[in-house]
Amino acid sequence: MAKDKGPRRPRAEAPRGFRDDFGAEVAERKAMLDTIAGVYHRYGFDPLETPAIETLDALGKHLPDVDRPHDGVFAWTEEDGGPWIALRYDLTAPLARVAAQYRNDLPSPYRRYAMGPVWRNEKPGPGRFRQFTQCDADTVGAPSVAADAEICAMLSDVLEAVGIPRGDYIVRVNNRKVLNGVMEAAGLLDPADPDTHAEARGIVLRAIDKLDRLGVSGVRALLGEGRKDESGDVTAGAGLSDAQADVVMGFLDARGATAAETCARLRALVGASALGCDGVAELETIAALLEAQSYGPDRIVLDPSVVRGLGYYTGPVFEAELTFEILDEKGRPKQFGSVAGGGRYDDLVKRFTGQTVPATGVSVGVDRLLAALRAKGRLAGAIPGPVVVTVMDRTRMADYFAMAATLREAGIRAEVYLGNPRNFGNQLKYADRRAAPAAIIQGEDEAARGVVQIKDLALGARIAQDASLEEWKAQPAQSEVPLADLVDAVRRILAR
Amino acid sequence: MAKDKGPRRPRAEAPRGFRDDFGAEVAERKAMLDTIAGVYHRYGFDPLETPAIETLDALGKHLPDVDRPHDGVFAWTEEDGGPWIALRYDLTAPLARVAAQYRNDLPSPYRRYAMGPVWRNEKPGPGRFRQFTQCDADTVGAPSVAADAEICAMLSDVLEAVGIPRGDYIVRVNNRKVLNGVMEAAGLLDPADPDTHAEARGIVLRAIDKLDRLGVSGVRALLGEGRKDESGDVTAGAGLSDAQADVVMGFLDARGATAAETCARLRALVGASALGCDGVAELETIAALLEAQSYGPDRIVLDPSVVRGLGYYTGPVFEAELTFEILDEKGRPKQFGSVAGGGRYDDLVKRFTGQTVPATGVSVGVDRLLAALRAKGRLAGAIPGPVVVTVMDRTRMADYFAMAATLREAGIRAEVYLGNPRNFGNQLKYADRRAAPAAIIQGEDEAARGVVQIKDLALGARIAQDASLEEWKAQPAQSEVPLADLVDAVRRILAR
């Protein structure tokens, strides 16, 4: 029989799909955000912080998987008939709202960066969380693709600044206008009647976005009749004819050895489509600007297979991918994949104002970048522990606090042991637990003589591993110094 | 007649009670958080980041105004019968959950700091927002009030570190045990039967917490029959007899000239109450520890009128107040008031585990601190603008980008103008708008000669104000330098 006496206790758990970050995890993320913000700042971008909550109306429905039952957003209403509000699912939708709201006050163009959590009401899975950190930079009000080129160059700088060496990443650039030109050439888009075939084009877009995961044959199936996955589930296809599908697949395969070659192939594919030709010209401009600044194909390439799932992109799109392999949960090597992406979205502000405002930007997935650096062993994984002042005599807490204060005034991280001081072994175990570089000890005898014992814990750990009995007895890891020399003695240990 | 043609547009507004922070506001908050985190770190506190969302069950109901219709929390459920989840309303409740969930893995005592937004579903008002930033430090697992004394000392250090000079703030310390001892002495608390009079004690607690706002007579009214405010609304009173109310009011007035005097008065008030005597002894210990570290009454004082509204405090409570005056919305001088507070809450972790875990901590209201510094003119109010490279010839964007890149590589914030370049005046207006220290100009002629024009915009602004026509014509604010000297020339301007 189940007991149910006493008050019911809440479960001590974060909700499913949410996680807690401790110590080094927090410090590493902060360091990365600071580094990225530094790059954005040098490029002239200004910080913006919008609230976590927006009206659902203002956020709009821009998440890619339109066929999902829930729409991916945490949303609720406070009262019957009151407005629905929601947690932001990205940093772009709030920017569009801000650009509309403050359009008469902001500089134009407005370069802004933003960083912080976003929330997705999605099914959590391994490594998939419902809150994660984005770090975005966007330029609002710049019609020229020079703004897109700048974002791509800055993204490359960002990746190198946070510790991804050149060669370990690639920024891939494409253009939605070219894709639409290809759709036009395939008879899937009539510029005079853009609503016709809109649904099929949506399926094409999402199919191409899954190229990495489904491969060429999977995408091809989605362009035609549809696709049955391993579990037997069927995803509806776009219903393209073979000839139409050939044109789209040709687009995916159009990447040449050089930007010029890629553009030539694309120009052939889009044929007479004015939109398509415009898109190819934009790609040529971007490639030329980047080459002139030495962002060569070792950093940034044109790649028609990148489309980005989001429906709101209207021009250039880009994606940064880490090219090294890591081990997956089952120990198999796999490509790390995408860590950042973005593109031009000239119609998002128009939702509010009715007027087109050109905008382009990038979103860096900071948590994924951190996971990549962690997987490669490129993060420290710890923050330096404090010097621990132990408590030998609990009536003399004020003296121990004074020692800690003296160390801190010298810029040294220090704390007094605040657990039950009776068991001294527990105090040293605690100091180990905290990765303390040193422990300070002052009992009655030392206090009378005006000295302290300093235990070099790092050295002590090394000796404990390797030392002979004689060495152990010699205890070089513990030394006695006058109280007045405390700071100097600790500094010597920290400098080792 | 109202027009309702065309698609309905969403309103470009943040929800009521939420605000957007731009540029300097974001930078100033970040700088303050970094400074506070630095102090916490030196004291041995480790960072923790919990998600914005917790189960409502785990958060519990700890907000002070229990009589409010909504309970002050943004909460919702995703499905019928599913768990209710909520946005955290402070950083303490999530810490209690973490301390319970990871109790076998965390060091003990566990010193942690946390910073970030919290949300309150309250009626917004002037200066009252529904999302604001807290920056907390707590020690979990330290039973001794030495931990409370440490938090008070650290809070004092924090305030001075962020730019509140000594004398402009005061940390006031009290002890809930003493208040409960006073209640016992007044016949409002029977330690053997704590549920009796619990409601009246709650009213007393909230009444005392309103001393600043209602004054002595208002509090006195709430202790007795109740109080009618200016609008005619009646707040129910605790129903104390005059004799009982005298004891409570005596407690509020017990502050003496020294800590010893205050403690002596309190000891008289609590009489035979064991809890009360224990509380007075704790205050004596805290006062002794702080005095030994020279945190005298110019920084930290014992003050029985501080109780803190939250029901979960079990021992020492503290509050930091700014003592200078600012002007209110109507231009009248007023005390700035509380910017931080905290105390000991030994029962919060017990909610989850059934076992008492001692805990104490402080929460710093960063947005209020920033408002105070802003009101005193102690914040810069701007971030340094970028050097703006203007566009004279739009076919030469690559050259302009190269100039900006050169400046950035030298550590100088720089950007290319990305608006429509046709109207050069607009480019200079933009540079002014951005508070650019300099604008770089290179037309056809300059390009042919391998030089650039550099416009010193700060100097230019000064000249425009003061100069005679001759000085204006001499244009000392604009100079021509070889392209190779660009960085040095800009550095000279920045150094002015």
Automatic annotation (TrEMBL), chains A, B:
Residues 42-384 form the Aminoacyl-transfer RNA synthetases class-II family profile domain. One of its GO terms (molecular function) is histidine-tRNA ligase activity. Keywords: Aminoacyl-tRNA synthetase, ATP-binding, Cytoplasm, Ligase, Nucleotide-binding, Protein biosynthesis. One of its GO terms (biological process) is histidyl-tRNA aminoacylation. It catalyses: tRNA(His) + L-histidine + ATP = L-histidyl-tRNA(His) + AMP + diphosphate + H(+). It comes from the Bacteria. InterPro entries: aa-tRNA-synth_II, aa-tRNA-synth_II/BPL/LPL, Anticodon-bd, Anticodon-bd_dom_sf, His-tRNA-ligase, HisRS-like_core, HisRS/HisZ, HisRS_anticodon. Pfam families: HGTP_anticodon (PF03129), tRNA-synt_His (PF13393). GO terms for cellular component: cytoplasm. The keyword Protein biosynthesis applies. SUPFAM superfamilies: Class II aaRS ABD-related, Class II aaRS and biotin synthetases. It is an enzyme of class 6 (ligase). L-histidine binds at D90, L91, T92, R120, Q134, D138, R308, Y312, Y313. It is found in: Cytoplasm. Homodimer. This is Histidine--tRNA ligase. It comes from Rhodobaculum claviforme. The lineage of its organism: Bacteria, Pseudomonadati, Pseudomonadota, Alphaproteobacteria, Rhodobacterales.
